[in-house]
Design a protein that fits this description.
- The chain is an alpha/beta fold.
- It folds into two domains: 58 residues; 194 residues, Vaccinia Virus protein VP39 (Rossmann fold).
- 37% of the residues lie in helices and 19% in strands.
- It has a seven-stranded mixed beta sheet, with helices on both faces. Strands 1-2 form a two-stranded antiparallel sheet.
- Helix 8 links the parallel strand 4 and strand 5.
- Helix 2 crosses helix 4 and helix 6 runs parallel beside helix 7.
- It is globular.
- It starts with a helix and ends in an 8-residue tail after the last strand.
Length: 276
Amino acid sequence: MRTIDALNAAAARIGGETPRLDAEVLLAHHLGCLRGDLLLNPDRNFEPQDYEKLIERRTSGEPVAHITGTREFWSLTLKVSPDVLIPRPDTETLVEVALKLCARPPVRILDLGTGSGALLLAALSEWSTATGLGIDGSPAVLAVAQENAQSTGLDGRTSFRLGDWGKGLDERFDLILSNPPYIAETEHLSEEVRTFEPASALFAGADGLDDYRRILPQLPGLLNPGGLAVVEIGHTQGPALLAMAADHGFTASLHRDLAGRDRCVALNVPTLKPAT
């Protein structure tokens, strides 16, 4: 079978939003090459039956990133597993906002709920003199993050720790990044996400705001003067987060992703009110 015919047949079977892309990524994975190399040189010998097994997994709903074991984020190739949330391009918005709003290069960076380590490693790849700490509540997740730090060559500037958000941390940071769970328990999700991704990284109570209620009160004690926190949100949660930030005395701003949807809130250290 010609490569082009195999890709067409696979895309037709996969369906969904990105069938052709999925087919190409899976064939490149099967061949052990980059997708770009496959597109430039499509005439290749491959084992149809082995490729068919990958397509069967995809048509059953398994995410491409779980099949290949990797996902690209901020030009970094990261390992993913069923233990971690698959990094999304939308989450890169947090790094873009941090690059824009940081008044000076951060020396210490904190990633709360680090997952695969995507946000922390992306930030460290931009600020070459910074060091960072990633916190997560799962040893299995931290093992994935540590492996990603090593594979990207950033392990010398990165450490990971088991923890409950910022509870018990006794140092301050110049930049805090976080992509916490923010989906309401009753919200509809695709079967692919609900079945294959960890619920602990998705759901946050009846309104999706439970983890923000825990994180925001911790931020003043974790940020250095002039520090910045950037927190991902669901696209309808902007007003609620801005109100919550105001209740805690933060100066906050709302930022959109490339699709024009509200994606994150940036928070500056609250100003101390004069005693009365």
